[in-house]
Amino acid sequence: MTSQQSQSPVPGAASYIQRKPDVLPRTCAEAKQMGQDCSAVQKLNISSQFSALEAACDEDWTVILRRHNSTVDFFRGWTDYVNGFGDLDGAYWLGLEAIYQLTSNTRHDLRVELEDWDDVRATAEYSGFSLSSASDNYTLFVQSFVGGDAGDSLTAHTGTQFSTKDRDNDRHSSGKCAHTHEGAWWYTACHSSNLCGEFKSHNPPAHGKGIQWSSWKGYHYSLKFAQMMVRPTQ
């Protein structure tokens, strides 16, 4: 990124660009600092190497995944997951390349928000969230689990590459996790979480299928709502 950044007095704290009104923010956090409405869709210029795109904001968090109904099919191929898909006002996936560009140069935190079919909500928060580039199949990195009542179902996936039904990068010696669990994710052999699994009703799905976060609801419960959001570390 070529724009000049303001100095931050706290080591590791995010520095935001002082931008002219006609210049797009890079993140929802920056848009909020610029006084823009951060409860809706924002147009962001996340990197000089990437075209401007629209993303959903939740205050200063940039939403990278939202699941809450079955209107958008998430059992998709590699190209769709690289480019992103869905409805910005509903269920959507921002895209692997966009997430990589967003998190590669500035340290980011991750917040996961979940809801079950009894309208009970839970969260999980992580520090040091990022993805590697396409050449490494968008490997997931999370530095540490910070806390949250949903428990930790993501650290086990750190260091693994992303897999889809047509691109098998998991660590299973014989099976294909994306096919078995009808989704796409940073599968090991196979998963502790599966937030891009198929949307299921509240009826118990087969083991490991559906939108899952095992540390909270186990492997036979598909969640009603799931959201992943990132923001620069403050």
Automatic annotation (TrEMBL):
InterPro entries: Fibrinogen-like_C, Fibrinogen_a/b/g_C_1, Fibrinogen_a/b/g_C_dom, Fibrinogen_C-term_domain. It comes from the Eukaryota. One of its GO terms (cellular component) is extracellular space. PROSITE patterns: FIBRINOGEN_C_2 (PS51406). Pfam families: Fibrinogen_C (PF00147). Residues 19-234 form the Fibrinogen C-terminal domain. This is Fibrinogen C-terminal domain-containing protein. It comes from Littorina saxatilis.
